[in-house]
């Protein structure tokens, strides 16, 4: 089973509500057949971006293109899109099969074609035996599966998923996440997933667009946005990050915890107060007794806690004069070598670190 | 502490029962009295003679038919006016809903006499023939039933996620008209039934406007025959009340049972995904 795979392009899209800018000069290209996740915190404009693609919002400036054709002013029912909403959106007066067949009925498909297609799609989403049930007789997860089947029944050029899993409990969410990915892969339909759940975005998407304050901060594969965050926001929004106070001491030089580090300092001047952003798994740890630190060592601290998280463990390391402890993640087998009270040396992998302007309030420097 | 609580609960329960029984008596005693008066004759006991006499009256059938037609037209006109308006308000102008709700209760505070006098002044000059037709009552009845119909429909629209349903329908290629008839109206069925029944009941019992505008309807007929045949009037009134109540129960029950078919939430399904 294959679907259409239209390219979607947003060019210089801006949108404001009551003079408050929600989308600020957005440029985004979604490749045909890919699943792109738009990830960001509440209020960042991600849902508005999706509504602009759907035709539910008209941008103040900019254009929307689907498959090369401009659709900025085209009504939602003329764009060839399918939507699965966060809220349960099945028509309450129709059975699951009738819901799935609705779009085909609108298109004038024969009864036999509608029945066959509805049965086929309900089977695809694992609900072959639930066609005669009304939405209220289905669980939340089942309703969202039917909504997905209904959206793809019309073979949309673009499938838009507006936080479709956020109302579901954790177990169902994980299960449905995998199923949506499987179905999207089988159908090959260009899909835009809006979510605030980074795990959902990273596990489902071919590419992730991270949004913040109406702008797109970075677009890349899940691996790229996690391993090579383009901005401090992306670094702190995706995954856990340690924020270590420091100062720019020269071009490409940052002083943190009385150590000199070789880091990119573009945009900063000598003397600027900064914060070093580094993920817990990008810090190496070894006992102090093992010898002197390398060029990127940030100093010596004391282990105050060890938290088992399954395959990995987290060590909490306190440095004198640092307001917040540093978290270091390492395989649990290696973590067994450390105990509370151990003095340890930490080494930052400079290629995985970023710097950010220091927060005005030192108390705000909290490890995320 | 728990003893005090039980005493409190017990006394509340007694008060509730007293209120219920009192309300039941206030409702039932007049009906029983009407039945007793309307279906008995002195020294003869139970009799349908007064009823037969009233039904045989030449005015009975036309007035009943007239009132039923007026009720039907009122319902159609109310729906035509209020459903699109309320849907539009809920979808596009939610901030105006409180104002619309406040305006909808105005008919409760404008006396029928004032309404008719105003209409007389306005229409006798502008459209002289308008008030001579019995169907001129329809706009007045629409105004009269507005508060009830508005509330029933508003409650129905609030009970569904109108915006999401409309967006979902549009995303599936459905235009606004098809969405209105295929999605919105079917999901408003219980509210439509309630609104229709309230209108129906009100029109079937409306006397003041019809009399003031010199039109003869079923309630006017009831009052007229009550002057020389009070037993027949009492019997007919009772039949009207009980009949309307039965129709209401049947339709409401049907509406609810349709909803109920989709309401039960099977526990084994809830856990399944």
UniProtKB/TrEMBL annotation, chain A:
One of its GO terms (cellular component) is ATP-binding cassette (ABC) transporter complex. Residues 8-238 form the ABC transporter domain. The keyword Oxidoreductase does not apply. Its EC number is 7.6.2.9. Pfam families: ABC_tran (PF00005), TOBE_2 (PF08402). Keywords: ATP-binding, Nucleotide-binding, Transport. InterPro entries: AAA+_ATPase, ABC_SmlMolc_Importer, ABC_transporter-like_ATP-bd, ABC_transporter-like_CS, Mo/tungstate-bd_C_term_dom, P-loop_NTPase, Transp-assoc_OB_typ2. One of its GO terms (molecular function) is ABC-type quaternary ammonium compound transporting activity. It comes from the Bacteria. PANTHER family: SPERMIDINE/PUTRESCINE IMPORT ATP-BINDING PROTEIN POTA, SPERMIDINE_PUTRESCINE IMPORT ATP-BINDING PROTEIN POTA. This is ABC-type quaternary amine transporter. It comes from Cryobacterium flavum.
UniProtKB/TrEMBL annotation, chain B:
It is found in: Cell inner membrane. GO terms for cellular component: plasma membrane. It is a multi-pass membrane protein. It comes from Cryobacterium flavum. Its main location: membrane. Keywords: Cell inner membrane, Cell membrane, Membrane, Transmembrane, Transmembrane helix, Transport. Residues 64-249 form the ABC transmembrane type-1 domain. The chain crosses the membrane at residues 18-41, 68-91, 103-123, 129-150, 191-212, 232-251. This is ABC transporter permease subunit. One of its GO terms (biological process) is transmembrane transport.
């Amino acid at each position: 089973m294959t679907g259409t795979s239209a390219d979607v392009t947003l060019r210089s899209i801006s949108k404001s509500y009551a003079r408050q800018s929600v989308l600020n000069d957005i440029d985004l290209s979604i490749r045909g057949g890919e699943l792109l996740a738009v990830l960001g915190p509440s209020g960042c404009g991600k849902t508005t971006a999706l509504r602009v693609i759907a035709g539910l919002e008209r941008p103040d400036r900019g254009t929307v293109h689907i498959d090369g054709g401009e659709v900025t002013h085209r009504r939602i029912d003329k764009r060839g899109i399918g939507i699965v909403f966060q809220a349960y959106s099945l028509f309450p007066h129709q059975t699951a099969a009738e819901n799935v067949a609705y779009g085909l009925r609108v298109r004038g498909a024969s009864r036999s074609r509608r029945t066959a297609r509805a049965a086929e799609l309900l089977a695809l989403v694992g609900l072959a035996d639930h066609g005669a049930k009304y939405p209220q007789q289905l669980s939340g997860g089942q309703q969202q599966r039917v909504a997905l089947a209904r959206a793809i029944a019309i073979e949309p050029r673009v499938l838009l998923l507006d936080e479709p899993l956020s109302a579901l409990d954790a177990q169902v969410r994980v299960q449905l996440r995998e199923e949506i990915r499987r179905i999207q892969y089988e159908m090959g339909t260009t899909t835009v997933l809006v979510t605030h759940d980074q795990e959902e975005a990273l596990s489902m998407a071919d590419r992730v667009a991270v949004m913040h304050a109406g702008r797109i901060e970075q677009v890349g594969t899940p691996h790229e946005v996690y391993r090579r965050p383009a901005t401090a926001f992306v670094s702190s929004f995706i995954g856990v990050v340690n924020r270590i106070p420091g100062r720019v001491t020269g071009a490409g030089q940052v002083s943190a915890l009385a150590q000199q580090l070789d880091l990119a300092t573009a945009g900063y001047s000598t003397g600027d107060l900064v914060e070093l952003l580094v993920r817990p798994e990008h810090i190496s740890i070894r006992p102090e007794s093992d010898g002197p630190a390398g060029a990127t060592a940030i100093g010596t601290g004391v282990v105050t806690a060890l938290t088992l998280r399954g395959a990995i463990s987290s060590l909490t390391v306190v440095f004198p004069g640092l307001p917040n402890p540093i978290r270091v993640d390492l395989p649990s087998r290696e973590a067994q070598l450390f105990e509370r009270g151990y003095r340890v040396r930490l080494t930052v992998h400079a290629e995985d670190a970023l710097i950010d302007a220091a927060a005005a309030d030192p108390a705000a420097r909290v490890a995320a | 502490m728990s003893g005090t609580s039980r005493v409190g609960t017990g006394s509340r329960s007694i008060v509730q029962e007293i209120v219920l029984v009192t309300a039941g008596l206030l409702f039932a005693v007049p009906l029983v009295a009407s039945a007793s008066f309307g279906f008995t004759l002195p020294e003869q006991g139970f009799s349908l003679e007064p009823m037969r006499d009233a039904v045989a009256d030449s005015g009975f059938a036309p007035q009943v038919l007239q009132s039923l037609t007026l009720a039907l037209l009122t319902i159609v006109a109310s729906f035509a006016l209020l459903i699109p308006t309320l849907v539009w308000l809920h979808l596009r102008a939610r901030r105006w809903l409180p104002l619309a709700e406040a305006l909808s209760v105005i008919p409760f505070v404008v006396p029928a006499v004032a309404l008719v006098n105003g209409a007389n002044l306005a229409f006798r000059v502008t459209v002289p023939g308008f008030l001579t037709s019995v169907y001129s009552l329809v706009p007045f009845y629409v105004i009269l039933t507005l508060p009830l119909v508005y509330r029933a429909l508003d409650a129905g629209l609030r009970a569904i996620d109108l915006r999401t349903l409309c967006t979902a329908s549009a995303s599936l290629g459905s235009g606004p008209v098809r969405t209105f008839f295929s999605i919105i109206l079917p999901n408003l069925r219980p509210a439509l039934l309630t609104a229709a029944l309230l209108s129906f009941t009100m029109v079937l019992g409306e006397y003041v406007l019809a009399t003031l505008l010199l039109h003869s309807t079923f309630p006017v007929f009831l009052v007229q025959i009550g002057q020389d045949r009070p037993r027949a009037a009492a019997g007919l009134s009772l039949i009207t009340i009980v009949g309307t109540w039965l129709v209401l129960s049947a339709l409401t029950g049907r509406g609810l049972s349709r909803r109920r078919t989709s309401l039960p939430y099977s526990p084994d399904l809830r856990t399944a995904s």
